[in-house]
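Help!! Second protein's tokens look totally different from the first
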Amino acid sequence: MKITVETVVNAPIAKVWNAYTTPDEITKWNFAVDDWHCPRASGDLRVGGAFSSRMEAKDGSMGFDFAGTYTKIVEHKLIEYSFGDRTAQVEFVPTGNAVTVRVTFDAESENPVEMQRGGWQAILNNFSKHVEGRR
């Protein structure tokens, strides 16, 4: 099953793309709730390149690495990647002075679909706030 989340970011495509793909920027927005953070991220933005983001509770009580491999890159338009046995696609659609960022990913079987959708949407909302300087 595929799940899709999206947000509209009021910023130019170059700024949106940079914030989504630059490890230093990723650490500033890649978490779902304020008592978590992303202390480190890395990425080799090319087909076959690896990426990894560490997400963890600020109190250190739990955390995990979100890692995978880029499978398709179309600058300012599309990123596809695999993570474990799942895949995801990130679309960047400029409209006027804004960019719609749409993420479609394979659901996993351990957590309810609505929980997965809510977590990924919260991260995307943080992304939008970060790029727009509302964080």
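Here's the second one for comparison:
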Amino acid sequence: MHMFYSDMLAKSVARHGGKVALVHEGSYVSFRELDTLADAIGHGLRHDGVGLGDIVPITLERGIAPVAAAIGAWRAGAAAALLDPANPKRRRDRMIAECSAKVVLDHDWLQTHRVTDDPPLAAPETIPTPDDTALVAFTSSQNGYPKGVAISHRTLARAVRVHAFGRSERDVFLASSVLATIPFELEVLTPLALGGTVHLTPGQGDPPAETIAAYVRRYGITATVMDPGLASRFLDIADGELRFLLVPMERNHDIFSVLTEVCSSYGCVETCGPVTRFDIDMPYDSIPLGRPLPGARIHVVDDRFCPVAAGETGEICVSGQIASGYLNNPALTARRFVPNPLARDLDEAVLFRTGDQARVGRDGVIEYIGRRDRLVRVGGRRVEPGEVEVAMLETSPLDGAVVAGIVGEDGLTRLHGWYTAGAPVAPAVIVQGLAEAVPGYMVPAVLKQVPAFPRTANGRIDMETLKGMA
């Protein structure tokens, strides 16, 4: 069983060397050419002193280059951290600093490290183990700054294996998400390991459903991944154009097709993507999370980590397919990655506490209930409202700020923000300030100044009353 993604890719290169691996805006590379390009990048990184224990931030725009760059980082013995180039500079610089990077792999670095006909890259002097870090993914954090999640080679390889979801080398794949770490694994790495051709949508942002539908028709795409809002719109205008559609989310609704195989899944950065599967065979008001995938064991437990009875509510905890912990944050790691009293073997020794609440039916199907904290999903991405609140206070003349997610009539969650200040502050001022601190999806869709925040009898902010003021 492969413990490294590089071994999986090598198998695809051997079997499909001349087949097109990646396509982007008229450019394409075969599996063999992708392998050569990754080797060249690995040579350059090794020449710059990069090796085992290093993290290589990759800030390249969507295209063939960031895929080759991540593989090249592994060839050099290092870990890769794919950063969205659309991130504001302040946020991106913070992530790079967290990586303690010797090299930032950006356009300038590629320009000064030409692809050459060097011989194949030899193995690094110090070879990574399956438990060494392969990927670092950044996600929202309550303290106002993004937190890094360290994913081992073992966990990445396990995720790639189980995320086939019935897709195969015969499929033509479309990757339409920003190439942050988990979409990168799900939409690019797994298809390449299967030996399929992957098309990367043109442009840099998340394209609308109409653009995706046109691309699917033009290039004969058969399989892709979309967040629920995008998937619902796509099926309205292009149902039957795809063979397979994967929709990752905690809670889905209004997604069903008799012409396309639609599958829902649940997971997060700390689980390296999906850990459940549910085949949507009929319309549901609330689509269940489904059953665990082979790479993970899911426990729904009470506060003492005892499994709850069927039908009772508990916290979702995951073992097996989980990250190693948080980068440079042992305290948070200790709180969220805990010893597993339910472990059956060493592979399940650690339990990741997701903070999500669910119940399990007698048929073993898991149903999502909600969060134990304030974290929300916006457009398929997890957002800690606390990070947005800190950014609002740091970038605008405010006395206080509160942010929450509100589900609209269309079933989509949007961020709403309320704030207090000694003088009137226009929402446009706050939006301008946030643009320098957080990505666009973390800017509240609605901002409202209030005289004071409503309080409960014990002095806490009354969130239900505040949401009623939206």
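Reply: Different proteins will give different token patterns, so don't panic. The radius of gyration is 22 Å.
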